[in-house]
Amino acid sequence: MNNSRAQITAVGSYVPEKILTNEDLERMVDTNDEWIIKRTGIKERRMASEQEFTSDICVKAVENLIEKNNKSVHDVDMIIVCTMTPDFKTPSVAALVQAKLGIPHTGAIDLNAACAGFTYGLHVANGLVTAGLNKKVLVIGAETMSKITDFTDRTTCVLFGDGGGAVLVEYNEQYPSFLSSHLGSQGELGKNLYCTDLSESINGESLTTTGNITQNGREVYKWAVNTVPKGMLSVLEKTQISLQEVDWFIPHSANLRIIESICERSQFPIEKTLKSLVEYGNTSAATIPLALDKGVTEGKIKRGDKILLYGFGGGLTHAGVLLEWTV
Ligand SMILES: CC(C)(COP(=O)(O)OP(=O)(O)OC[C@H]1O[C@@H](n2cnc3c(N)ncnc32)[C@H](O)[C@@H]1OP(=O)(O)O)[C@@H](O)C(=O)NCCC(=O)NCCS
């Protein structure tokens, strides 16, 4: 049974102006447009300027949400920023966002579940609002992946980009958006996707401490295509809704081949997926809100639509949320 009392009432997004195309990357490392498109589906990605940080991206995404939806955030009582690329270790990005937006009475926390961050953030926001602990929560997924990417490493620099998206989750008993969710973590596989300049081992296994994102792409790929289809079914089995009744699937936009394989294994039509991959690359916690905002802005997502969001990545972590669009 669905007990949610939380409604997603608005969505917005922002990406930095600077575009880095596959042709630009050809001039930087030994790669080519054909390889990148064939293996990942990515054509270009956005790059934050040197002076632009995750909190700046968050603020612009929220300003876009305010402008498009004629909403106020003055009475927001909790800010959750989902990110793995904070401006600082402390203060949190959420606290910086609170100050920059001048929100007077609010809690502010960062949530790090890497590329699954946004769906974890939605799960938490639904819980807080449904429990009556908060009334109006801003959930933001934003990243400056370019700041932790080694642009001499062709195996990672072609994949990642910068951007952010935001939603407002408000108390509403009549029109809740949240139907169910499912979370998972496999920290024992953490060494396959990490970023560190501190610790030199995960679970006793030694790491290369470059300060940049490092991954075993093949292992992450295999894990994602095995884990996500099962997770999607776990989200749905808590409801009376079948996969065939899902109108839109928004998987984390890591890689087109991963999305194709997930759809094939789940027998879900790829035409009903919404992605932010081709134009923005893998923006980690931002890929899902970017695709959601695009789907709403382009009029694809309509009132009554069932939308399955599924984030997966570093941790390794994953989280799925089933929504009904009720605005
Ligand atoms: C990263 C990824 C695209 C690599 O694709 P792949 O098919 O596994 O390719 P491999 O790593 O086996 O490399 C194949 C060859 O391409 C080369 N290569 C790697 N990156 C390259 C690039 N950017 N351009 C050209 N060649 C490249 C490799 O060096 C290798 O060459 P070799 O055969 O001479 O040794 C793929 O593993 C992947 O998508 N993994 C998931 C990554 C991901 O999404 N992570 C984030 C999850 S949140």
TrEMBL record:
Gene3D superfamilies: 3.40.47.10. The active site is at 115, 252, 282. Residues 253-257 are annotated as: ACP-binding. It catalyses: malonyl-[ACP] + acetyl-CoA + H(+) = 3-oxobutanoyl-[ACP] + CO2 + CoA. It is found in: Cytoplasm. Its main location: cytoplasm. InterPro entries: ACP_syn_III_C, ACP_syn_III_N, FabH, Thiolase-like. Residues 109-187 form the Beta-ketoacyl-[acyl-carrier-protein] synthase III N-terminal domain. It is an enzyme of class 2 (transferase). Its EC number is 2.3.1.180. Residues 236-325 form the Beta-ketoacyl-[acyl-carrier-protein] synthase III C-terminal domain. Keywords: Acyltransferase, Cytoplasm, Fatty acid biosynthesis, Fatty acid metabolism, Lipid biosynthesis, Lipid metabolism, Multifunctional enzyme, Transferase. Pathway: Lipid metabolism; fatty acid biosynthesis. Belongs to the thiolase-like superfamily. FabH family. The last Arg residue of the ACP-binding site is essential for the weak association between ACP/AcpP and FabH. Homodimer. Catalyzes the condensation reaction of fatty acid synthesis by the addition to an acyl acceptor of two carbons from malonyl-ACP. Catalyzes the first condensation reaction which initiates fatty acid synthesis and may therefore play a role in governing the total rate of fatty acid production. Possesses both acetoacetyl-ACP synthase and acetyl transacylase activities. Its substrate specificity determines the biosynthesis of branched-chain and/or straight-chain of fatty acids. This is Beta-ketoacyl-[acyl-carrier-protein] synthase III. It comes from Robertmurraya beringensis. The lineage of its organism: Bacteria, Bacillati, Bacillota, Bacilli, Bacillales.
